[in-house]
Predict the structure.
Amino acid sequence: MSGGEMTNAQLLQQMAFLRWLTSETEENRRVLAAVTGIQVGRELLNRITGQDKVDAYKRECIQSIAEFVRQNPRASQVQINAEVEKRVLVFAAQVYALEKAPLL
């Protein structure tokens, strides 16, 4: 996300909030509560599981391997395998560190 942009969940919440603000009906209050509850639940799940960080570490691992291959087009299969192994070990260490980190 670049500066100031909302996630889809934030946009949905703001739309529900705006709808409730303009009408203040019980139905719109329930919609706002449901959307907010889903967003809070999703955030708690991400924090408990660390899945968003695992996904970011995985992307970083893959990108670093691809960058190595691009920068070393003449690398042997042994060199590529060694680099992949090194990057996967870094990824595994990052995920392991997440398991030991406090939840919130």
About this structure: The chain has four helices and no strands. The helical segments are 8-23, 26-49, 51-71, 77-100. Residues 26-49 form the longest helix (24 residues). The CA atoms of residues 16 and 32 lie 5 Å apart.
